[in-house]
Design a protein that fits this description.
mainly alpha; 2 strands
């Protein structure tokens, strides 16, 4: 691993790991603020658009700091697109609301008990 979000960086492994996860967390927070109100398919498209904007910001900052890519730009583009699609899917899956009753008196309680009880010795 020698890259932070697809960009070649010459530094220690610990700094690369920390930088990669810091950038990924920043991207996920920015993505979440944009896609939270959309349904899945529009959110995926918007996630890709956000990824494109973040890619160009990443590109501009990297070049302004004098960075030189030893690999092609395709790696950075692909990393941004795949990360944004995956992060959008995870965000939308984690944000699934509780089911609502569609009929009067319908039970929509979770199937697992809220406070599970330990098994007795005879039930094991």
């Amino acid at each position: 691993m020698n890259a932070i979000m697809g960009r070649d960086i010459q530094t220690s492994f610990a700094a690369l790991l920390l930088g990669h996860f810091a950038v990924a967390l920043l991207y996920a927070v920015l993505l979440g603020t944009v896609v939270y109100r959309f349904r899945l398919l529009p959110a995926l498209g918007i996630g890709l658009a956000v990824g494109a904007v973040l890619y160009f910001c990443n590109f501009a900052i990297f070049n302004a700091l004098g960075g030189v890519m030893q690999t092609g730009e395709a790696r950075a583009v692909t990393t941004h697109a795949v990360f944004m699609l995956f992060a959008t899917l995870v965000y939308k899956a984690a944000g699934v609301p509780r089911p609502r009753a569609t009929k009067l008196g319908e039970d929509v309680a979770p199937s697992a008990p809220a406070d599970p009880q330990p098994l007795d010795a005879s039930e094991r």
